[in-house]
Amino acid sequence: MEFAELIKTPRVDNVVLHRPFYPAVEGTLCLTGHHLILSSRQDNTEELWLLHSNIDAIDKRFVGSLGTIIIKCKDFRIIQLDIPGMEECLNIASSIETSEWRLSYVNKEFAVCPSYPPIVIVPKSIDDEALRKVATFRHGGRFPVLSYYHQKNGMVIMRSGQPLTGTNGRRCKEDEKLINATLRVGKRGYVIDTRSLNVAQQARAKGGGFEQEAHYPQWRRIHKSIERYHILQESLIKLVEACNDQTHNMDRWLSKLEASNWLTHIKEILTTACLAAQCIDREGASVLIHGTEGTDSTLQVTSLAQIILEPRSRTIRGFEALIEREWLQAGHPFQQRCAQSAYCNTKQKWEAPVFLLFLDCVWQILRQFPCSFEFNENFLIMLFEHAYASQFGTFLGNSESERCKLKLQQKTMSLWSWVNQPSELSKYTNPLFEANNLVIWPSVAPQSLPLWEGIFLRWNRSSKYLDEAYEEMVNIIEYNKELQAKVNILRRQLAELETEDGMQESP
C-alpha cells in the first residue's frame, strides 16, 4: 500500500483555520503524503504547512453537520480546523492519524528480504534496526508489514512469513513489539494462520512455527486450512480433464468435478478472506495474516479481504494497484508457480495455480455483485493469460528483486500501460458499474459458487450467443445514457426559459 493511499479525502473546501495570534481564515485544506496544507484566497494570509510528523495528538467533536479537529503539535501549538460535513471531518481525522506509520527503506537493494520491495510501511515506533532483527525471526526475512489500512476505524491488515520459533519455543521481543504496535489501546488482534494446526505444528518441528499465546497475549490465533503446491496443481489438472470429457454423462461429469476439489479450494479461500474482513470491519480488530512463506495463500487472503472492504479495489486502476502491491511487489513467485499449466507431463513441486484461484475468487464476487466492479470478466481472463504467457514484463520473474536484476522495466513494456489505453480499456469496462462505497459480503455457500465457465469451458463450447447478448446489453445501456443526456439538456433549456419568462413578467 502506498502511503498516499491512506488518504481518503485529499481536499476539502470551506475549512476554517484557528491558530494562535492569527485571525480565523477560511480556505481549502489539502492532505499530501507528508503535509497538511491550508491555503486561502484572502489577502495577506499565510498558508499553513504542517508536517504530519509534527502532530502529537488530535481530538474530534461534532455540532450538527459541522466537525472540528483540534491538532496538538509536538512544538506545543494547538490548531483548530472547522470542517463542513461529518464524513469529510472523519476522513481527514483518520488520514491524519496514519502518522502512526512510516515508510521504511530498510530493504534498500533488497538487503534484508529478497522477496520484499525496497520500501515498505511499518509502525513509526519501530526503527530499522529492530526490523532487521525481526527479519531473522521470520521465514525468508518477511517481517510483518502493512498490507491494508481501513479508513472507517483505523484497523489494519499486516502480512508476513511464519515465525521461526522451532521446537524450543524461540522468541523475538522486537517481533512482539512490532506486532503490538499495530494495536490501539485496549484492543485485541487476530493472527490468521492459513495452515491447519497440524501442518503448523509440523512446520515447528522443522524450525518454523506460529505465535505462542504466552508471548503474544493480546492476539488470538485462528488456523484456516488453505491448500498449496502440488495439491492445487493436481486439482487444476483434474478439473481441466473433467471439462474436456466429451462423454456427456451427467454422473461422470459431476463426479469428476467434485473429485477435483477446485470449488472446495475456492470456498476455503473466500471463507478465510471474509473472516479477515469481518475482524477488521465488524469486530474492530487488526489482523496479521501468514502461512509458511507468506507468498501464496497469504496474498490470496489479503487481496480478497481488500476487495471486500475497499471500494477502490473494485475499480480498474485500483485492482491493477492491488495486484502490483499485493502480488508483484509482495513477492509472489509467478515464474515458478505459472511455469506450466494443466497439460504438461513434467510436474515441478513449486508449480501451483495460486493466482488463478485468486482470480476465480474475484470472479465469484463479481458474479454476486455485478454492479460493484468497474471491470468485467474479460479483464480477469486477460490477467490469467498474461500471468502464464505474456509479451509484457509485468509478470516475469519471481520477485521485484529479480525483475530489477533483469532490468525488465528498461527492456520490456508494462502490461498496465497497454491495458490502460482507451482503445483497450473499453474491452474490460463493466457497463453495469455503479460506484458502491459499502463493504460487500459474498456468500460462500456451495450453491453460490459455480464453475467459472469463462475460463474452463471457453474452448469446449461456443460463446457466440452470450457474446452477442452482451453486446446488445452494452448497446442498450449506451442508448439509455445518450437518451438521459438529451433529457437533461432539455430540462436545463426548459428551466432557462422559465427563468427568462419570470424575469419578463417582473414589474
From TrEMBL:
Alphabetized, the UniProt keywords read: Acetylation, Cell membrane, Cell projection, Coiled coil, Cytoplasm, Endoplasmic reticulum, Membrane
Could you name the domain of life of the organism this protein comes from? Eukaryota
Q: What is this entry's stated membrane topology? A: Peripheral membrane protein
Which CDD domains does the UniProt record give? PH-GRAM_MTMR9 (cd13211), PTP-MTMR9 (cd14536)
Task: List each copy of the Myotubularin phosphatase domain by range.
Answer: 66-456
Record's signal peptide:
none
Major localization class = membrane
Q: Which PANTHER family match?
A: MYOTUBULARIN-RELATED, MYOTUBULARIN-RELATED PROTEIN 9
UniProt protein name: Myotubularin-related protein 9
Q: Which organism is it from?
A: Sapajus apella
Whichever gene encodes this chain, its name is MTMR9
